[in-house]
Amino acid sequence: MFFNKKSFLKSEIIKLANEGFINKEQEKAIFGFYHFDENSDFPLLITLAFVFIGLSLLTLVAYNWEQIPNILKTFLLLATLFATHLGIFYSKNSIFQQGFGILSGFVLLANIALLSQIYHLGEDTALAFLSVGCVVLFLALILKSFSVFITGYLLTSVWYFLSFDNHSIHLFICLILLGIIVQSGILFCLSLNAARFLAFLNFVFLNLYLYNFQGNNLNLSTFAWLSLIILGFHLKSYQSYAFFALALTFIALSYDANHLFLSISSISLSALLILLGAINLYFKHYFLGILTISLLLIGNYSNLYPTNAIILKGFYSFFTFLLGIHFIKENHKILGLLTFSLLIVIRYLDLLGDYIGASVVFLCFGLGLLLFARRKNA
């Protein structure tokens, strides 16, 4: 419904401009106010239509057409690929031009799959996804199309997941950097929702890439330090995702401090975090500054010296509580309430049977929230 409303509003603005009720300057100003871009709009239903057509072709190729000669199958697929590219460069409608761009990626993948099957060229599925993804990304930059770019970006991510245990995955960080550049609007304009969605993908992929370097599967350092760096630099496009990742990390640490832990082995990363903490304190961002330095100290201390798990749980629960208050203060109210709810559930499970302890914890939560509400109203 939301996309239909936006498309309707945009079409009405264009109609008013075509009928002379508003001039081009006013049209551009209205587009800017609503974060519209005339060249980047691509209806969601048409995008899904071309994606399903592409998936249909892939599943069709998976069927073993033994009665059709190999040369004819090869010719049909290559002709389909040629037809999609003709559709890209000769279509006068930008919507269908982008649709053919999406479809061409699936057709190319189908070509690689069938040719590998027919002529026994090997079964490196990951490399096939990488090759097709890079071609689609290049096509997206030519067409300046967000929908085509997302298709290529997701195809290359499939290569990364299939090659997760392989050491030759460092190309993925270059693709993430390309995603960050596109999200910033340098290469072509994006609507507000498109930029938010791409920022979400960039954040998830960056976490997955860095997580691959963690020696211990239960080490949550990547999520915490990356989130603190993003928040420390005040990267607004990624702040809400960093807050969410930080909240989940704290909640996990509050639940099990025996096996889950924070650590930092890089001196340069430690120096960066200390510097960010000091800068935030200097510019009166006290919460982020204190949080960054405190976590750095607690993480290093608990790794150097054996620390009671109950004490660590208490520290992380306290920071989770403060983070929930900070969310509400920064107008991330849903995230703040979710953080409080999860923390209360975890603390209740941890204190199950200890009714006195649970009562004290809930009382502290209630009094803390009342104090915060009173100060906010004042």
Automatic annotation (TrEMBL):
Domain spans labelled DUF2157: 16-145
Stretches that traverse the bilayer: 42-65, 71-90, 102-121, 127-156, 168-188, 194-211, 223-253, 259-279, 286-304, 310-327, 355-373
InterPro entries for this protein: DUF2157
Nucleotide-binding found in the keyword field: no
Matching Pfam families: DUF2157
Keyword Transmembrane helix: yes
Keywords per UniProt: Membrane, Transmembrane, Transmembrane helix
Protein known as: DUF2157 domain-containing protein
